[in-house]
Input
Amino acid sequence: MHRYRSHTCGALRDSNIGETIRLSGWVHRVRDHGGVLFIDLRDHYGLTQCVVDPDSPAFSLAEKLRSEFVVKMDGKVRRRPDGTDNDDLPTGKIEVYVSEIEVLGPAGDLPLPVFGDQEYPEDIRLKYRFLDLRREKLHQNIMTRVAIIDSMRQRMKGQGFFEFNTPILTASSPEGARDFLVPSRIHPGKFYALPQAPQQYKQLLMMSGFDRYFQIAPCFRDEDPRADRLPGEFYQLDVEMSFVTQDDVFAAMEPVITGVFEEFAKGKPVTKGWRRIPFAEALRKYGSDKPDLRNPIEMQDVSEHFRGSGFKVFARMLEDPRNQVWAIPAKGGGSRAFCDRMNSWAQGEGQPGLGYIMWREGGEGAGPLANNIGPERTAAIRAQIGTKEGDAAFFVAGDPDKFWKFSGLARNKVGEELNLTDKERFELAWIVDFPMYEYNEDDKKVDFSHNPFSMPQGGLEALKGQDPLTIKAFQYDITCNGYEIASGGIRNHVPEAMVKAFEIAGYGEQEVVERFGGMYRAFQYGAPPHGGMAAGVDRIVMLLCGTNNLREISLFPMNQQAMDLLMGAPSDATTKQLRELHIKVNLPQK
Output
């Protein structure tokens, strides 16, 4: 028999009854039933109930076992007594009568419990992550992550893609976040950067004559952490294709992402035939560039019904042609209590309030707005937005460029509060036609709004003759249930157009050549039209595991302060290390 086990803790069944076997694993818990000890033994594969009674030679040692001891047990498989089967366990019809125990690894007092999935302080969980990862739910999440990544790989290969690995040490690049810099010992005073994404390398692969690239790529960004973005590093399904249009990218990737969701959705419906929603329409209807389409609410512009009306606050706003009034229909929300609650919520979000109209029996509008604008205008609003008796509508007014985010929050809040959002489904969509540029109020200049390497719609002619803030790009996102899970674009592969695009954002040709020399040179020697995308592996796993925190699907994440409490990173460098790198530390004054 093998030194440690003949079977795993999830393998034994009725067919093994009568066999002498050997198991090794962790003591999950010990139960004392009138002097008979029941020990649940756990390993990666499952859990087996082991029984030790006072007649067993192993009883004296069994009494000393505690949770998370690693032990080896020899014994005989037998049928559980009638009425004690556990249908929740694959091994639930049998138990092992133990004849011998060997302690392979004793465990001290636990800083957090492994049995059960009760809440526990996150910093303790991260410091003792090796214990946390033994807990059932987190262990399952990690294995689901492994399976999802494997599914992605197989589906990509099935679509004719090839897996390439790109460098980790590279040059600094303006991808939209801070780089992690790595000092060079061999080249004093110079730095490598960890890649924010393999963007330039994957485009260079297309220049090199390869055709369909993918990679499960680690990416590094020195940005502030949040629940849906891990500090420091994350993984993406990185993709690039040659000789393709935007439609070709969609046709290749939609079945991959749909297939992954269908495989791991646990029976929840998944979108078939994704919608393509222009960026401007997404803001207008949903108040978000990553709308939660499980929520059926669509906002509408109802400015005409308030223009010149008795509600002077809105009427005066609308004298400025930039301003609008948007309505947020609220099916079933026509009670004063709910409307007051939404108004209080808006004030908590820093707004002066949230105007509303309720429609009562007979179709009459009620509330301060209805009283001010009169029954005709109220009826016209109702006819436009399709509300019925018992419904309400909330109104947001001003410059849409300034209020669209709040309107999206209000739409989500109404959907949640009135149970209009169907939580038991996955709604996927493409968001298309992103603006190429945006105005940076802080620096008073035009900036790239998305990916700087994307092709503008209209090409070089648009860059030369169009107001930059009106140029759309061949850029697109995939959204799911209120999250952006992928982003991509058709690339700007024309050298003159690339220089012009960066010039509009304030970069001179010399700077473009210096910062993107490799790609710029490659474009001079026959660059194919190409495009691709990158899907966030972590967010996809998070959605499919039904959690809203990326730490619940990652092996060894940092905490909210970007610290690795398990390994003690970041840590001080030694004087010798700093001297070899020709670096002096200049700490801020406390």
Notes: The mean pLDDT is 94. The first helix runs from residue 59 to 62.
